[in-house]
Amino acid sequence: MSEEHRLQEPRLCANDCGFFGNTATQNLCSKCFRDLKHEQENSSTAKNALKQTLAACVASSSVSSPPPPPPPADLTSDLKEVNTENPGKRAASEPEEEEEQKPPQDPKRCLTCRRRVGITGFRCRCGFVFCGTHRYAEQHECTFDFKRVGKEKIAKANPIVKAEKLESI
User: Where is this region: Disordered (predicted)?
Assistant: First the structure.
């Protein structure tokens, strides 16, 4: 058995965490395997609780009250007309939502050079993790608007002070 173990090449963890996996743990490292088992246990207990809650809700709702009546047809047609009136505004707002979505990132690697940083990585205000070289906003083309945040901070710190109006005699 020890000969078979020696012949096997070490494989990286299936979660790409950087550690070596084991065939006994589904090619996962010990930490990822432990996390997977914990997640499976939580999901099974959550499913059981959800089933019990649903069963209780169905039993209580069928006994206590009848289902609500459907909305009148004229209201639903009015809603459809409102939705079709402004298709240009909706189309213009959709690309903005797509631009704001962040690409998936491994929090243990620098976004720019993909160097492994672990716990020594620097989290920027734009929400990504960078190595020591790329931690500055000028080095990684930061999308965070420092100017706007600075203006808001100054506006909060220095409120406008107005004197009370004087009564004329």
Answer: 59-107
Q: Identify the structural domains of the chain with CATH numbers, from first to last.
A: 1-63 (1.20.5), 105-159 (4.10.1110.10)
Residue type, 30: S
Each residue of 9-41: pLDDT tens digit?
778 888 878 888 888 888 888 888 888 888 888
Residue 59 tokens read as 């039993």
Q: Identify the burial level of 28 via C-beta atoms within 10 angstroms of its C-beta, where 0-12 means exposed, 13-18 middle and 19 or more buried.
A: buried
Global pTM reads 0.32
pLDDT tens-place string over residues 37-57: 888 888 777 677 767 776 766
Number of residues written out for the chain: 169
- Please report the DSSP string for 69-125 in residue order: PPPPHHHHHHHHHHHHH-HHHHHHHHHHHHHHPPPP--TTB-TTT--B-GGG-EE-T
Question: What type of residue is 13?
Answer: C
Environment class of residue 90 by beta-carbon count within 10 Å: exposed (0-12), middle (13-18) or buried (19+)? Answer: exposed
Task: Tell me what pLDDT residue 98 has.
Answer: 45
pLDDT of residue 68: 53
Residue for token digits 């690697």? 109
Task: Give the pair of three-digit tokens for residue 160.
Answer: 């406008």
d(CA 145, CA 150): 9
